[in-house]
Amino acid sequence: MTGTILVTGGSGYIAGYLIRQLAAQGWKINTTIRSLKREPEVRAALGVPGSSIRFFAADLMNDAGWAEAVAGCSHVAHVASPFPPNAVKDENELIVPAREGALRALRFASAAGVSRFVMTSSVAAIAYGHPGDRTYTEADWTDVEAPGVNAYAKSKTIAERAAREWVAANGGAMEFCTINPSAVLGPLMSDDYSASIEFVKRLLDGSVPGFPRLGFAVVDVRDLADLHVRALTAPGMANERFIGGGPFMMMREVGEILRERLGPEARKVPTRGIPDFVLRLMAVFDNSIRQVTGELGRTRAASSEHALVVLGWESRPAAESIVDTARSLIDRGIVKV
Ligand code: NAP
Fold this sequence. Notes:
This protein is of the alpha/beta class. The chain contains twelve helices and ten strands.
């Protein structure tokens, strides 16, 4: 199955891999970027045939360009949303564009007669603000009122909820579903890398003195793009929600994989842990660290069983994605080992 699709945020990591896979399958792609000044650079990074993709300038925060971008499209993959590497001063810097952008993309898609709309949400919209450790599923929602839930998790939760409410009230025949990925790793597409790559970079370049007791589940960007394609093309996707992630792992395990697989190139990867009280002290001076101290020692596993059962989807082993991320950072000269 192919057609014409709008992929929002063509300059992004996940969108880039999705565009590559769609182009390889013969889709015609429209994509939005904030400024057409970046079109040559983004085209070069994507490396797809020029005739298969068209660029449109559109920002999540205003209507200009959206009608043109979605005209003639049967499908939308709404991937764009703010995902900064550092903590923001005001949570609305993330919440407002995430929510308004999703609603804007939905409004224009519906007006253009789009039949399938797949939104990239996050495990951040599922697994936070709850006491105790358990395995989360698509039935769970992050509690944005709970203490310690960071601005990014709030932005993803509020945007997904707003999108689902909008679709229930106004969506008509347009099918809507979300993909909720865990931490996305894999080869970089350009030197402008996603925030999720940052922790592998910091482990490799020696800028962290040890492992905090923090962890996450990993999903490979290539497999995640494939999950998006499946959700775009499988029958009967209305109101579906798919977690895309592998097993939960602690940062120490990531470090062990790097040292084992990269040998001397991983010589700056720490070998020791950072005690929780040291991290809490560091958090007094560093807002980014403050955002994660509530996560120390927590396990937030999320099950991808639903994607396996309904779409036949699985992510490759996390070790492969971790090593490919590291190799890509080294090969591009972003990390000097
Ligand atoms: P990314 O590379 O930073 O991509 C984010 C994209 O959103 C970029 O194209 C960015 O454009 C665009 N964007 C941000 N604010 C915008 C605005 N106001 N107007 C228009 N475009 C805007 O990150 P990614 O990893 O590919 O993330 C893509 C999606 O996946 C996001 O929705 C993110 O929340 C979600 N996600 C990511 C992960 C992960 O670990 N990477 C995990 C779960 C969910 P610019 O290039 O102009 O900034």
